[in-house]
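User: Mind token order:
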Amino acid sequence: MHCAAPVPEPPRLPRRLCGTATTSRLVVGSDPGDVSVARRWAAQVSHSGVRLARDVAMVVSELVTNSHAHTASGLPGGTTRVEIERLRFQLAVRVTDDGPRPGEPPLPHGPALVFDIVSRYRNTMFDPDLPP
């Protein structure tokens, strides 16, 4: 009788990935509950005031939700990777999905809410939590 080698289980998601002093990374699965995990994680790792942390969390939430709704990341076994880099006067948010769903073309545009929030902070060199 021939025995097959055991198949390793895939890693549990969501999970934090190795980062640096200025970069934090998270990978989430296709479970809709992972969106709220990503939102809470983003607010925490932004290391910013309440208002900016809330907005970063909203941007990450919208991007991960979009990834789940419109890409292969929302299919069983799909993943979405989120990275937040803290720079001197800005935060860089990067979201990577699994690409288009099989048989569907890629989407030509991103979510309007994210662009609205980002446009409020674009080219600002001050703490957005302070009054103007």
Notes: The longest helix spans residues 50-70. Strands lie at 15-17, 23-28, 80-86, 91-96. The CA atoms of residues 27 and 81 lie 4 Å apart. The mean pLDDT is 83.
